Amino acid sequence: MIKGCAVVTGASRGIGAATALELSKMGYEVIINYNNSKEKALAVLDKIKQNGSNGYIFKCDVSNRKEVDETIDFALQKYGRIAVLVNNAGIAQQKLFTDITADDWSRMVNVNLGGVFNFCQSALPSMIHFKSGRIINISSIWGSEGASCEVHYSAVKAGIIGLTKALSKEVAPSGITVNCIAPGCIMTDMLTHDFDENTINELKEETPLGRLGTAEDVAKAAAFFAGDSANFITGQVLGVDGGFR
Known about the structure:
Order of helices and strands: EHEHEHEHEHHEHHHE
Radius of gyration: 17 Å
CATH topology: Rossmann fold
Number of helices: 9
Strand content: 15-25%
Number of domains: 1
CATH class: Alpha Beta
Shape: globular
Structural class: alpha/beta
CATH architecture: 3-Layer(aba) Sandwich
């Protein structure tokens, strides 16, 4: 039985791909947003079909409002309404604060925070009309704790937390929940690209549970917020960090 349509941004790999797969197991058909990795997005769609569900891939730069609107319009044309929106797409960059350029700052804000704004604002009119919907935003532990050499990344992730809390109050009367997940150190391509093996081992040692998280750990948290058990939960930030903070 189809539970409805879920739109997942940045869903061609990592946390986004795992979330798309987890939601498909719950009965959602998924719009898999990707920007550059079409083949990986198709591979995720193939796995979703193996789960007995269905979906579509859709190319979209989350910082481009026109493309975001086109994505939401496509989802509404196919399914009539959007049950779940997961704002996961994002970029990371390590730099000393004094080395961050105006372009670095703008890109970080436009993609990581602007993408959440764009998708929420584009999807909400339909959700408000149906008085139903789940919005799940992916922030980071660094959005609350801050990370050295990642000031711009930490700032926009903190912004996602603020957006979540404020928007949850605004749309609650329309029966829409808005929650946030703050992953800790998660073993994804982004982490292995930015950190060497020694640093990764240090992060494991600093994590009380003694391991790095997986994309599936975060995906299961997203599935919780999308499920019936979270009917009376909104405006919350759930840390998936192995006790790191």
